[in-house]
UniProtKB/TrEMBL annotation:
It comes from Knufia fluminis. GO terms for molecular function: flavin adenine dinucleotide binding; N,N-dimethylaniline monooxygenase activity; NADP binding. Keywords: FAD, Flavoprotein, NADP, Oxidoreductase. This is Cyclohexanone monooxygenase. SUPFAM superfamilies: FAD/NAD(P)-binding domain. Pfam families: FMO-like (PF00743). InterPro entries: FAD-binding_Monooxygenases (IPR050775), FAD/NAD-bd_sf (IPR036188), Flavin_mOase-like (IPR020946).
Length: 542
């Protein structure tokens, strides 16, 4: 027997974009559901990532839920790109609109979860000294949430202010201060741009090991005519998004880069540059930038030429020009390179002068010491599986996820299920699609909730106090097969030849492996349909 007041049909971990929708779907299926989150309120990524300049690189009209048509037509968005305060406000709005908050418990961190095979329940321990049991444990932990602090000598010696962008203070004042930033991926680019626009720092020093290719975002106010056009076409927009590769709301190109003249190539790149958006520049221009080195170099040189045009100090421009493949997460910005035209903005190439240590006063490289008042780590996250391996999640026979993944790297079936972990369902788990997050989350949530609905129909349980019911679990062969599919799809990609968090390369000692399905959202959804139509191929009978 289990206590009715602490037992749930489903316990959802995380109150961000995925967790909110998961709760809504399962409540609509008349299940007893609870959401727990370590934060003080809803938001997930948008609760924690409050650093200056935090912005989605998805246009506002599709950075929202597709399932509430009335809300799509009426909810306000004034700019092409949604910023952190607006994203958080939107999620609050959805929770309040559908009266979901009463099913949520905050300031509650998952510490451990143990599957009990005899009772077919998950036993969950939390930071509030509570014990919950649930039939289905659904994780909505997010792809990018476990902060990555670099292992730099002397990091604890620094006497100034020190922050990680993944856990930013609720207020800050850098007026008249010397600020150093380590890391220049999407977050670093946004922070640097915003601090430059605030124009308050005495000096900003960007420490860069891998300069990034970034293109304009194309952000700006939305006209009434534009909004009306979007509203008229929402059904077609979402149909296109779900049946595209990267799901960013534009048609991907089917034209090889080298099949057109140099003049035509530059014209297309310029058009994408003017329209804005990193994913558009990479996938809308030509269809082979991520697989053909020659095509990729054409895009690289175009962006490098823009850096040289934009940054007046050619030594700064040299340091800001990438030399590697254009094959990391595509970036866009609202004036990043322009900030380095300011005399008080410096760039330090860590290839020219590596960091030797962090000191009490700042950062010492092989050439000099940079005195700083503030040190910002925009060093990203232990992506995808980091939030799972830090937790004691144990399946059959006490096996932990960390142990399950120790030899192979993080693996799953469909990015949703792990063999030997019954009734554990993951939203954007390892080897899920490398696509726009909101439609990907919706795809996962809908597959998970439909799977649970089937399990509930075929395996009726009692009133919730006596736990029986279905066991949803992928097979070892299915997990192995999906891992192989993901590996094969990424084998010819230039992404795989570029050291980045997408393959775990940003974490010292982490096994280099494919963390995503590179087949695109359309193909991923097709494969899910085949799984369902085949009677849940790859899962043990339930």
């Amino acid at each position: 027997m289990v206590a009715a007041d602490t037992h749930y049909d489903a316990l959802v971990i995380g109150a961000g974009f995925g967790g909110i929708y998961m709760l809504k779907r399962l409540l609509d299926q008349h299940l007893r559901v609870k959401v727990v989150d370590a934060a003080t309120d809803v938001g997930g990524t948008w609760y924690w990532n409050t650093y200056p300049g935090a912005m989605s690189d998805t246009e506002s009209y599709i950075y929202r839920y597709s399932w509430d048509k009335e809300d799509l037509l009426s909810y306000e968005w004034k700019e092409h790109y949604i910023k952190q305060p607006q994203a958080l406000a939107y999620l609050h709005h959805v929770v309040d609109r559908h009266d979901l908050r009463k099913y949520m418990q905050f300031n509650t961190e998952l510490l451990s979860a143990q599957y009990n095979e005899e009772r077919n329940v998950w036993i969950v321990q939390t930071s509030t000294n509570e014990t919950f049991t649930c039939h289905y444990l659904v994780t909505a932990l997010g792809l990018l949430s476990k902060q990555n602090w670099p292992d730099i000598k002397g990091i604890k010696d620094f006497k100034g202010e020190m922050y990680h962008t993944g856990k930013w203070p609720r207020s800050y004042d850098f007026k008249g201060k010397k600020v150093g930033i380590i890391g220049n991926g999407s977050t670093g680019v946004q922070v640097i741009t915003q601090l430059g626009k605030e124009n308050q720092v005495e000096k900003l020093v960007s420490f860069q090991r891998h300069p990034q290719y970034s293109v304009p975002s194309g952000d700006g106010p939305v006209s009434e005519e534009y909004r009306e056009k979007i509203n008229r076409n929402y059904d077609e927009i979402w149909e296109q998004v779900r049946n595209s590769a990267v799901a960013f709301g534009f048609e991907e190109s089917d034209v090889p880069c080298m099949s057109v003249t140099p003049e035509e190539r530059r014209k297309k790149f310029q058009e994408a540059w003017d329209l804005g958006n990193g994913f558009r520049f990479m996938f809308w221009t030509f269809n082979d930038l991520t697989v053909d080195p020659a095509a990729n170099e054409e895009a690289c040189e175009f962006i490098r030429s823009k850096i040289r045009e934009t940054v007046k100090d050619q030594e700064k421009a040299r340091k800001l020009q990438p030399t590697e493949y254009y094959a990391r997460r595509p970036l866009c910005d609202a004036g990043y390179y322009e900030q380095f035209n300011k005399e008080n903005f410096e760039v330090v190439s860590l290839k020219d002068e590596p960091i030797e240590a962090i000191t009490e006063k700042g950062i010492r490289t092989s050439k000099q010491e940079y005195e700083l008042d503030v040190l910002i780590f925009a060093t990203g996250f232990d992506a995808v599986d980091g939030n799972y391996t830090r937790l004691a999640i144990r399946g059959r026979d006490g096996e932990s996820l960390k142990d399950h993944w120790s030899e192979t790297g993080p693996v799953s079936y469909l990015g949703v299920s792990v063999n030997n972990f019954p009734n554990l369902m993951m939203i954007t788990g390892p080897n899920g699609p490398f696509t726009n997050i909101p439609p990907t989350l919706e795809t996962h949530v809908e597959f998970i909730s439909d799977t649970i609905a089937r399990a509930e129909k075929n395996n009726p349980r009692n009133d919730g106090t006596v736990v029986k019911g279905a066991v949803i679990e992928s097979t070892a062969d299915a997990e192995k097969g999906w891992t192989q599919i993901c590996d094969e799809l990424s084998a010819n990609s230039l992404f795989r030849k570029s050291p980045s968090w997408i393959f775990g390369a940003n974490i010292p000692g982490k096994k280099y492996s494919s963390l995503f399905f590179f087949g695109g959202l359309k193909d991923y959804r097709r494969r899910l349909k085949e799984v369902i139509d085949g009677g849940y191929v790859g899962f043990k009978p339930f």
